[in-house]
Amino acid sequence: MKWAVVGFLILSILHIHFRGKVRLPFGRQLFDHSSFMAPINIFMHMFSRVPSTPYIAVREFPELSVLQENWQVIREEAEHLLALKKIKAAEENNDAGFNSFFKTGWKRFYLKWYDASHPSAERLCPRTHALLQGIPSVKAAMFAELPPGAKLNPHRDPFAGSMRYHLGLATPNDDRCFIDVDGQKYSWRDGEGVIFDETYIHWAINGSDSDRVILFCDVERPMRFGWMQAVNRWLGRTMMTAAASPNESGDQTGLVSKLFRVSHVMGQYRRRYKAWNKTAYKLTKVGLIVGLAALIYYI
């Protein structure tokens, strides 16, 4: 039984690693958060009702048309937030999902995050908030800013229960500002939407001289069977709500994001240890893996 569990875990990680044309180095993949979610994601991919391709036609999600029809209304509220400097990085290292993005200037303002409460969104963006509340399949949404020169490094998102929707609001309308999903580039344009599978390796860069602001949404992945859709919905409510991060005081902070503040402090010591002696760091890393494998075997 133990070997069956270990075998399934290895199979799941290999499935994630070899999915698509672009891959992370295998050593990095082993420790990537997507590997810890691999046993769940293999089922998400297996029962998915949408094609296993990096990009999905927007027409596959007709409920999103109301967002595209109202993109100028949404842009007006986003630009109002920009003027108020409300689209910003997390101030207290309490954004577990997107903390690494802040390093190059990426910023966000949450409009919706699964079952978490964000009163600031309803107060500051009432029209956009109302539009999003009217689309149950949109589980999470935010305004996302990528300033000139900013880059998001190659990564894959950990949970395959959703698809990613980007709607261009105030973009450079320039091919130097783009996202690359599994080796295929897309350049944002004002008023245009795109959907992609964020469990493929993707990265983004703004090589233009202008800012880029988009509406960024996680849309529930359609599943082939009702029972699997219910499982997906439950996982989203429990796991993803726990990763909620606030825009300001009064917004909900999930348990995972609260714990991330502790993890962030520990990570600073880890980085110092690595800088002090890379060989010792690697040996410690291998030792922890062997120890974890032994623990799993003897439990």
From TrEMBL:
Pfam family, one: Asp_Arg_Hydrox
Entry keyword annotation includes Secreted: no
Highest taxon above the source species: Bacteria
GO molecular function, one term: dioxygenase activity
Signal peptide stretch: none
Keyword Amino-acid biosynthesis set for record: no
Transmembrane segments: none
Entry-linked InterPro entries: Asp/Arg/Pro-Hydrxlase, Asp/Asn_beta-hydroxylase, IPNS-like_sf, Lipid_A_LpxO-like
Record keywords: Dioxygenase, Oxidoreductase
Domain Aspartyl/asparaginy/proline hydroxylase intervals: 68-222
Similarity comment text for this entry: Belongs to the aspartyl/asparaginyl beta-hydroxylase family.
PANTHER family per UniProt: ASPARTATE BETA-HYDROXYLASE DOMAIN CONTAINING 2, ASPARTATE BETA-HYDROXYLASE DOMAIN-CONTAINING PROTEIN 2
Protein name: Lipid A hydroxylase LpxO
Natural source organism: Massilia forsythiae
Gene name linked to the record: lpxO
